[in-house]
Write a structure and sequence with these properties.
Blueprint lengths: L2 H14 L24 E2 L4 E4 L2 E3 L6 E3 L2 E5 H7 L3 E5 L4 E5 L4 E5 L4 E4 L2 E4 L5 E3 L2 E5 H7 L4 E4 L4 E4 L1
Parallel strand pairs: 2-14
Antiparallel strand pairs: 1-4, 2-3, 4-5, 5-12, 6-7, 7-8, 8-9, 9-10, 11-12, 13-14
Length: about 160
């Protein structure tokens, strides 16, 4: 084996030995590197519980760079928001009797009632569905959240 092959093999082994980062619920007010081509995996094992009710939507949660991502429209509509998508601006707007929210595709900031809030992961589109960090859903529903890694359960309460 020549020096180049040996070096490439060593680099490959070293890189492949890194562990996958832990899953987070994506807290607000953290900076994030923007990506235009997100990488994600669908998490069919994750259970989402809101106020002691198991939520099971057609669009399953996803994991993006270690952060739990949830399908925005399904969650917000279930809690009384009217949700619209503007294809031209790549923005999702949600409104209920008291709150107005705006998310922009590939951005980690959201607008809550005119105030900018920054999350740890950008809004993304997966299979024509808009996903946002779990912390966005928690904030929009005025609830706290906790992730139980051992059981793979996200509890929003």
């Amino acid at each position: 084996m020549n020096k180049l092959s040996t070096s490439l093999l060593a680099i490959t082994v070293a890189v492949s030995s890194f562990a996958i980062p832990p899953v987070h619920a994506a807290s607000s007010s953290a900076s994030v590197k923007q990506t235009t081509k997100p990488n994600y995996i669908m998490d069919y094992g994750l259970t989402v519980v809101i106020d002691d009710e198991i939520i099971d939507y057609k669009q399953k949660p996803a994991i993006h760079n270690g952060y739990i991502m949830l399908p925005v429209k399904a969650y917000l509509e279930d809690f009384g928001y009217t949700v619209t998508w503007n294809q031209k601006t790549k923005q999702l707007h949600a409104k209920d009797d008291t709150d107005e929210l705006t998310l922009t595709l590939d951005r980690s900031a959201a607008i809550f009632n005119g105030e900018k809030v920054v999350y740890s992961a950008p809004v993304m589109m997966i299979n024509n569905t808009i996903y946002a960090p779990a912390a966005f859903i928690s904030d929009a529903l005025y609830r706290d959240m906790e992730y139980y890694e051992d059981e793979d359960v996200l509890h929003i309460y």
